[in-house]
Amino acid sequence: MSNYTIKGETGEWEVVIGLEVHAQVTSNAKLFSGAATAFGAEPNTQVSLVDAAMPGMLPVPNRECIRQAVRTGMAIDAQINKWSRFDRKNYFYADLPQGYQISQLYHPLVGEGSLTIEADEKAGIAEAKRIGIERIHVEQDAGKLMHDQHPTMSYVDLNRSGVALMEIVSKPDMRSPAEAGAYVRKLRAILRYVGSCDGNMEEGSMRADVNVSVRKPGDAFGTRTETKNVNSVRFVMAVIEGEAKRQVALIESGGTVVQETRLYDPDRNETRSMRSKEDAHDYRYFPDPDLLPLELDDAFLDECRASLPELPDAKRARYIGEGISAYNADVLTAEVEAARWFDALLEAGAKPVAAANWVTSELFGALNRLGKDISESPVSPAQAAELLGLVADGTISGSIAKQVFEKMLESGDGAAAIVDRDGLKQTSDTGAIEAEIAKVLSANADKVAQYKGGKEALFGFFVGQTMKAMQGKANPQVVNELLKKALG
Amino acid sequence: MTDLTNLTVAQIRDGHRAGDFSAVEVAEAFNANVAGAKALNAFIVETPEHALAAAKQADADRAAGTLKPLSGVPIGMKDLFATNGVQTTAASHMLEGFVPRYESTVSQKLWDAGAGMLGKLNLDQFAMGSSNETSYFGNVISPWRRKDGGPNLKEGAALAPGGSSGGSSAAIAARLCPAATGTDTGGSIRQPAAFTGISGIKPTYGRCSRWGIVAFASSLDQAGPMARDVRDCAIMLQNMAGFDAKDATSLDLPVPDWEAALSGDLKGKKVGIPREYRLDGIDPDIDAMWDAGIAMLKDAGAEVVEISLPHTKYALPAYYIIAPAEASSNLARYDGVRYGLRDLPQGAGLQDMYAATRAEGFGPEVKRRIMIGTYVLSAGFYDAYYTQAQKVRALISRDFTAAFETCDVILAPTAPSAAFGLGEKTADPLAMYLNDVFAVPASLAGLPAMSVPAALNREELPLGLQIIGKAFDEQGVLNAGLAIEERASFTARAEKWW
After folding, report:
1. Among residues B301, B106, B348, which one has the least CA distance to residue B223?
2. What is the mean pLDDT of residues B207-229?
3. Chain centroid to CA A112
4. Is B78 known to be catalytic?
5. Phi-psi region of B54 (alpha: psi -120 to 50; beta: other; left: phi over 0)
6. Which one from B71, B104, B168, B188 is the annotated catalytic residue?
7. Hey, which of A23, A222, B174, B442 would disulfide with B449, CB 3.0 to 4.6 Å?
8. Cβ within 8 Å, pair A99-B329
9. pLDDT tens digit string along B164-209?
10. Which candidate, A177, A212, A169, A183, places its Cα nearest to that of A115?
């Protein structure tokens, strides 16, 4: 249970959240035409006769888009409807050439499923929670209006017109902005693992309609508002917080929440009313007579299932089973590219726990510094495995490994070659180490006295000094043992 | 030399093949007839150069020994089919001046088969109408004229050629083209064929691709040929039909050689006579023609059985819910944004532009159907109208399925009357809609159905008999049509007055 509440004058209010996420299906062609879908093309260069709704043009379903939606449904353990149908949602707008959007109201492709968000104490999510998903249906995206091209007219770009979207509708199962944020991140991760959506929220590949209502704990659901087209996790959370507070203040001052569509203004961090239920469109949904019902056979479904990769939850469980901390497992599985890189590292022979620690601290730190993401990492999983292997077999120490990694990043050379060339092999030569220890202790007689007087924390200081004197090449375990002996 | 424009498609094809005349001679003869028949207003655009170019190609192909199935045959194209580089209007102001850069699948198939185009034929606006009076480009006038048939009937009055394929029917009846394309949503091939004494077949839904045909009601629209006789319909249809991956409702079936299998011998066949099609108060000439048709099919060897299609009386109301519902959505694309008419009043916003453009671009009948369709799909009315109509549609289909357990084809009148006078029914849309009463059930069920000329009424106007067949059994329909054609000996033709 979330303990997130809005504190009003009349007591605590619970927030109820449902999300409709629109995810652009990764495919080369649009949902019902052969036109291309690449982002960022010149306006109106990816428009077929069908997308422009020329007279007599007809939609033909794109098999790959259907396949991706089915695979997504399978990834959230949802019921796949072998019989589904397309409906027309009728309304006029300049970015909607047909005068209707082909969607699925009555018989969606994917039925009920769910995903699990992990516990996150810092965010106030005490334990893992299952969030229900009502349905996934596929539909066409609209084009885009450009209002800044001409002083008195708007321009229309139809490149997005007809691009396939999945609308993923959650149940009203979330109770805090943090839960909603975790849901969107988890959903995004699943989509990216499956490869059905690139999850790029900045480019609009993924956006959410945020449904929010408030109630006193134990009461029935309150009236909800829907804030449209929110395009980042941060904004989703901000919308929920702001909208919940607005509703509480409204109710407590004697008003009532009206069911309405709202728009989010990120610059002012506030939502404003777009239209109320009274002037909502009557979309006159009816089955699209240009299309036959979609019937999926077992062979198609089998192929969809067989093509699914290991998904985030399964991967996370496997990592934890290999001794990796839950925190590191979360970090490693959050992005599919990182998880794939890490799996390649394990496959190259690295030990899971050490590898996880190294990737989450050393590698991620270096990439962060370099402003690169993992797919552009200058060091390959095989090269990293070689480096970690040298640490594991005692050839170099952890601190030397950091130096070697820096040199790898700079030169692109292999770890073993760098260690050989620069003479960085760790030594367990007790004679050499004891000689340096003796020098360190005599130069720091005052600290030796303090240590012996009970200030045991100084032990680390002596280790550090010895390692420094050995230029980091001493085996730390040997240093520890010899120091203990020397300090009595 | 015989007048080449009196020849049928088969005669032109065979005569050209045999070297009796050149394709250019044929094209020139029809071009001349088209040019001389402006009074009929059958064409919106004339394309004599297209017909001539195809004819020259046909003559070259003959010399090279590479003749195609329709080499040397010029035809008319209903102006609902998109033709690359040639204005395509659906007889609307909305699309006046619209020149597509694509060719409909059906017209492309016909050109690939060697046919040439004489022009784009007039029709009811967006194929909505039964008299061709809703065309923005003016009504077509039937070449037929009434003889005095009684006190209420004005002799010689201008008659409707039927609709919506009224340009096609008038042009064929007047020998402006030997054959033409039509489309049939609720009788738009069959009723005009009956009104003008020619033949026309609407095949099984899905036989002809709808790609590139301006949509009226997608679940009902079906292209088909119109011609002077059954054989020509078979020839045309087998060059129009075929699977098209660009139309999701296209039938993935091979196209039979319907012409080769034509036979008017109906021995062993059963013909169903639906008792619900006997309407009270119907023109006695219609019933008499129907009875004569029954006798002809018996003579051809068929056994005649009475059948029942119990939901027939609900077909017309269901049709006039479903077709307008689909039309209201299909015609939403004509909004002035991308092509066609745009009316942008000074200082107007987007909504004003929509309103002005659609008020200006659509005629009254189109607006009426958009309003009906919008209404029946509205929240609160959807179940009472649209859902209910779909249930009726299913029941009508079931009626036919049950009937076809006891018969092979069904015989009925095509229309409840002969051609009516222009202007006679325009004031009463319901009276106009009633014209489709016999045609609509087969459309709702997606079944093949054709009209063949069977008799003249007392005003000496043609009447048509309708044959409805099982899904995919165009052959059965054509054969029954042929049996009637062989016995009706319908040779009457409109006397030239234009």
Report:
1. B106
2. 98
3. 22
4. yes
5. alpha
6. B188
7. B442
8. yes
9. 999 999 999 999 999 999 999 999 999 999 999 999 999 999 999 9
10. A183
Q: Is B96 on the interface with A (CB under 8 A)?
A: no
Work out the angle between the directed axes of helices A381-392 and A415-422 (0-180°, nearest 10). Answer: 50
CATH classification code of B4-267:
3.90.1300.10
Look up B188 and say whether it is catalytic. Answer: yes
User: Considering the entire predicted model, what is its pTM?
Assistant: 0.91
The partner residue sitting opposite B377, judged by closest CB among A52, A93, A284, is A284
Consecutive H or E run containing A344:
helix A336-347
Residue A89: phi and psi, rounded to 5, are: -110, 110
Q: How many CB pairs under 8 A join A and B?
A: 95
Q: Which of B337, B358, B386 is most worth mutating to test chain A (most A CB atoms within 10 A of its CB)?
A: B337
Catalytic hit among B78, B109, B425, B470:
B78
| Residue B273 contacts residue B411 (beta carbons within 8 Å) | yes
Q: ipTM of this predicted complex?
A: 0.96
The one-letter code for the residue type at A367 is L
Query: Is B374 in contact with A284 (Cβ distance < 8 A)?
Result: yes
B positions 377-416 inside 8 Å of A (CB): 377-379, 382, 386
The beta strands (E) that lie in B255-375 are given as 270-274, 303-307
Taking an 8 Å cut-off on Cβ atoms, the answer to whether B215 and A60 are in contact is no
The domain locations on chain A are: 6-300, 310-422, 430-486
Q: Return the residue matching tokens 């301006």.
A: B214
Counting other chains too, the contacts that B235-239 makes at CB distance below 8 Å and 24 or more residues apart are B235/B9, B235/B10, B235/B13, B235/B69, B235/B70, B235/B259, B236/B9, B236/B70, B236/B75, B236/B110, B236/B179, B236/B181, B237/B201, B237/B203, B237/B207, B237/B474, B238/B69, B239/B69, B239/B70, B239/B109, B239/B110, B239/B113, B239/B115
Among all chains, which residue has been given the structure tokens 């319909």?
B233
What digits encode the pLDDT tens for the residues A90-123? 999 999 999 999 999 999 999 999 999 999 988 9
Q: Which CATH class is domain A430-486?
A: mainly alpha
Task: Report the distance separating Cα A331 and Cα A90, nearest Å.
Answer: 44
Please provide the DSSP assignment of B424-479 as one string. SSTT-HHHHHGGGTTTHHHHHHT--EEEEEEEE-TTS-EEEEEEEE-TT-HHHHHH
CA distance readout (Å), B446 to A399, B207, B257, B439, B470? 80, 10, 21, 11, 9
Nearest Cβ partner for B249 among A92, A97, A292: A292
- From CA A192, how far away is CA A242, in angstroms rounded? 29
